[in-house]
Design brief:
binds magnesium ion; single chain; binds threonylcarbamoyladenylate; 35% helix; 24 strands; 18% strand
Length: 597
């Protein structure tokens, strides 16, 4: 399905902005699409009575229109406009769990157009408990048909920023209500019969439903080939990030936190204290973390350039750090969701964690598996789909771009820090200037950045170059100006040389000499800063990026000096620098204490 931008920009309203919510409700009633927060995930809503408006949702999502949408309401009295029959079972589920993270499937009324239900004679009804969702849905007055607000096939959005990434320009507005509490979509229950059939597991668990229905509930079976799915959404590729996802089994016999807990949604994260912990606790922790560490080592053995995302508890990162294997750490990007066995915390962060790690351009995400009968069933259902085979896009589904995270909405930047990388050579008229040009381009392309210590703190990264024996104020070599302009589309003719000095070293968080001898020279003169000085090749080696030639001998990064050579040599030099710096880029920003936000 061809997606077409229909707005110059999508409006972003804060959930506490009453006038904004009113404006959104009015536009929705008039046929526009508005994304809104709920306690499960963000939804992409349109007037459920208006077939034309509902079509716009499918356009924005790039979703095939044979997948039915759920109708969202702000008041239970709206149910009778949507359905033609409320079975005794449906009544019990409505009374027990609405408002809340449940969708109840009932026979539809004629007022609901076939576009909403993809031609089915049933309809899903959901009343969210999120206060912003509730005030928006009340203001709309009409039932709001809404799927999750992601581009079809990508992880569902659990905050306004993730919605903006997928939907900017495709919908009228996004209402920002902060992070979704549960982080996984609602439990979908077919209540048209006598027995509840769970079509999609969620935060309302099987046990919850059985308690309420006074009898057994069944999960809808997996589909045979050619069978029409009961929940048609089940047949599409879902929740898949760019990276490959592998599930790391939790230790046998470990006890989950929050599998059946309901309102106790307080995530008090306990960091492990290795000095005081008991031998048993230490062993339990090792059992949780070792599948990650073993698997990562295995991957790195077959591909020393692999970059690994770890979606796990704080304990796992703590153990990686305790191990202190610098190479392992250099290759790892962590997303810590809370304590390892806290399934509510894992569910809350799963989709955001996948999006975040994708944005760090990791090749593989190792994610904590958590097995249990309640919330864990919902968590594993989504995680298993994310880990499913790639390339299952239907021909008319859009191929998502690897996410690049846009500006953070509203108050997201609490503080912004800066970091600086300095490239050094001899006279700062050729190679170091080219490095600065390449790096500046990469920094722009991959911005914005956060500090590794806290995702709440933004980081601006600057790039400079200088020369050990440079005279100040000399223009760059004409050959390199031409090659940089042709290869990178950047004009560096106005750049002037700078001589290195202690103040510049001091202001830089990372100093990269183009050649080994210049790195040695800096370290000899200023041994106290040796930890932040590298040559291109020693930096690569420090990250475990070792290159071998055909005979198995180590090869170091060597960049020829093009000066005095022909044009082709200049071009080759810029290409080589570009290739190296692109490869080293994620490691360089990490060495400055930052990551892509
Ligand atoms: O938590 C949620 O349910 C979120 C928020 C926004 O409310 N919505 C959501 O919608 O996840 P969506 O469209 O991404 O997933 C709805 C699921 C799909 O798997 C769909 O096939 C199924 O519910 N579904 C909807 N109507 C149905 C029906 N009449 N019969 C069977 N399955 C249905
Ligand atoms: Mg969805």
């Amino acid at each position: 399905m061809e997606r077409e931008k229909i707005y110059d920009e999508t409006k972003l309203f804060n959930g506490s902005d009453k006038a904004g919510i009113k404006d959104c409700a009015k536009h929705l009633a008039d046929g526009e699409v508005v994304a809104f927060p709920t306690e499960t995930v963000y939804g992409l809503g349109a007037n459920a009575f208006d077939a034309g408006a509902v079509e716009k949702i499918f356009m924005a999502k790039g979703r095939p229109s044979d997948n039915p949408l759920i109708c969202h309401i702000g008041d239970k009295s709206q149910i009778e406009d949507i359905v033609s029959e409320i079975t005794p079972l449906a009544r019990k589920l409505i009374d027990a769990f609405m408002p809340g993270p449940i969708t109840v499937i009932m026979k539809k009324s004629d007022a609901i157009p076939a576009e909403v239900t993809a031609g089915l004679d049933t309809v899903g009804v959901r009343m969210p408990s999120d206060p912003v969702a509730n005030s928006f849905l009340k203001a709309c007055g009409v039932p709001v048909a809404a799927p999750s607000a992601n581009l079809s096939g990508t992880p569902s959005p659990t905050n306004a920023r993730a919605v903006m990434e997928d939907m900017d320009g495709y919908v009228y507005a996004v209402i920002d209500g902060g992070d979704s509490v549960f982080g996984l979509e609602s439990t979908v229950v077919d209540a048209t019969g006598e027995k509840p059939v769970i079509l999609r597991p969620g935060a309302v668990t099987k046990a919850d439903i059985e308690d309420c229905a006074n009898g057994a509930a069944a999960f809808a079976g997996t589909l045979e080939a050619g069978q029409t799915p009961k929940a048609p959404g089940m047949k599409y590729r879902h929740y898949a990030p760019f990276a490959n996802v592998e599930i790391m089994d939790m230790p046998k016999g470990a006890v989950l936190i929050g599998d059946e807990a309901d309102d106790a949604l307080v995530y008090e994260v306990k960091k492990p204290d290795f000095d005081t912990m008991s031998e048993d606790d230490r062993q339990a922790l090792v059992d949780i973390a070792s599948p990650f560490i073993h698997r990562e080592k295995e991957i790195l053995k077959s591909n020393p350039f692999a970059r690994i995302g770890v979606f796990a508890g704080v304990e796992v990162k703590a153990l990686y750090e305790k191990l202190g294997d610098k190479i392992l750490l250099a290759h790892t990007e962590f997303y810590e969701y809370g304590n390892a066995l806290d399934v509510r915390a894992a569910a809350h962060s799963l989709f955001e964690g996948l999006r975040h790690l994708d944005c760090q351009e990791v090749d593989t995400i190792l994610a904590q598996g958590l097995t249990g009968g309640g919330m864990a069933t919902a968590y594993m259902n989504r995680l298993t789909k994310a880990a499913g085979k790639k390339g299952e896009l239907l021909p008319d589904m859009p191929k998502p771009d690897r996410p690049s995270r846009g500006e953070l909405p509203l108050e997201a930047f609490k503080d912004t820090y800066t970091a600086q990388i300095l490239f050094v050579d001899d006279d700062n008229t050729c190679l170091s200037q080219a490095c600065e040009a390449v790096m500046t381009g990469l920094l722009e392309k991959n911005s914005p950045y956060d500090m590794l210590v806290s995702r709440d703190i933004g980081c601006e990264i600057y790039c400079e170059s200088a020369g050990i024996t440079a005279s100040d104020g000399i223009g760059p070599d004409q050959g390199i100006v031409k090659a940089v302009s042709e290869e990178l589309g950047r004009n560096i003719s106005h750049c002037r040389s700078t001589r290195t000095d202690p103040a510049l070293y001091d202001a830089s968080d990372l100093i990269i000499a183009v050649r080994d001898e210049h790195a040695f020279e800096i370290i000899r003169a200023f041994p106290q800063i040796k930890d932040k000085v590298f040559s291109l090749s020693s930096f690569a080696a420090s990250c475990g990026l070792v290159f071998k030639d055909g005979g198995g001998r180590l090869v170091s990064i060597s960049i020829p000096d093009p000066r005095g050579e022909n044009e082709a040599t200049y071009t080759h030099t810029v290409k080589a620098l570009k290739a190296w710096l692109e490869l080293l880029f994620p490691y360089l920003i990490k060495a400055m204490g930052a990551e892509r936000s």
